[in-house]
Amino acid sequence: MSLEIVHGAARAVITETGAGLRAYEVDGVPFSETYGYGETPPFGSGAVLVPWPNRTAAAQWHLNGELQQLDVSEPARGNAIHGLVRRLQWTVLEHVASSVSLEVEIEPQAGWPVRLRTTIAYSLDDTGLTVTHGVHNIGDRPTPFGVGTHPYPRAGNDSTDSCTLQLAATTVLPLDSARMVPCGPAVPVAGTEYDFLTARPLRDVHLDTPFGGCLPGEDGLVRHVVTGPSGGVELWADPDFKWVQVFTPGEFPGRGRAIAIEPMTCPPDALNSGTDLITLEPGESWAGRWGMTPLST
Fold first, then answer.
1. How confident is the model at residue 102, as a pLDDT?
2. What's a Pfam family this protein contains (predicted)?
3. pLDDT above 70 (res 297)
4. What is the DSSP letter of 175?
5. Nearest to 207 by CA among 261, 153, 158
């Protein structure tokens, strides 16, 4: 089942399975990639990534010195990928004209022994789409976690190859190309092929790359921008989203070249590295926001 919200000419569609973003448009112009009702989200489109984004190497990590063995959800590389909630049925808490909120509990299971409750709210207003994540430790021990999401913003009807990309990221994290997990520390992007601090054309750019050091602007928000000949879209996030994965698949169904800009609170394999994990004591909660704003030329 899908849940529609509207505000003026803006419309968004959210799935109950996974609580993912299936569509976002204004005046019928798409500002996120979409897919058909009942279809499996292609390339993780719109997925909510909790309690870790991206990959956990070998599907293993340690909690308080105890080895945790997650399900190997990426068998080809032997990793656990994209958390535990994207295939769960979420419960709708409230659904009104311009907003919807949902929740799901992460039960103790193989590799994840602590109970968490995670919430998400989507809302539309005159500025665009806002998405608010919540994580609540309803277990009995301190728990580290990360949050990410997997939207595919698009500059309206402009082709991806006609667009430019600008990122707030100041570092890039090198990956083992076979396993797609980190193989060294993050390094500065300045002067490299990964420097998108100034907008650069997307044509011939191929990325499946984690960027870090995302710096907020004067207003306290991290901002990434895709701009095309007829307009653009800005993906903004709270400062807790210090990381962003950028992925440019060449065969997004019905679209061809597309771009995912995935805000993350921590990098790939953070359950092992500990980098930028958030830890909640029993009874504590965390919240963070990101969103998309259409831009005109």
1. 98
2. Aldose_epim
3. no
4. B
5. 261
Q: CA-to-CA distance for 148 and 50, rounded, in angstroms?
A: 7
The answer to whether the peptide bond before residue 51 is cis (omega within 30 degrees of 0) is yes
Structure-block tokens of residue 183: 């193989």
CA-nearest of 280, 195, 279, 290 to 241 is 290
Task: Report CA 210 to chain centroid distance, whole Å.
Answer: 12
Domain ranges of the chain: 2-295
Comparing CA positions, the residue from 150, 197, 159, 181 lying closest to residue 49 is 150
> Facing residues of 51 across strands?
none
* pLDDT for the residue numbered 2: 85
Taking all residues of the chain, what is their mean pLDDT, rounded to a whole number? Answer: 97
Amino acid at site 77: R
Tokens 């993050």 identify what position? 186
Separation between Cα atoms, residue 76 and residue 46, nearest integer Å: 22
pLDDT above 80 for 68 = yes
**How long, in residues, is the chain?**
297
Instruction: Tell me how far apart the alpha carbons of residues 285 and 278 are, in angstroms, rounded to a whole number.
Output: 10
Strand order in the sheet with 2-7: 2-7, 10-15, 21-26, 29-30
Residue that is written with structure tokens 């539309």 in the block: 124
* CATH 3.40.50.620 describes domain 2-295: no
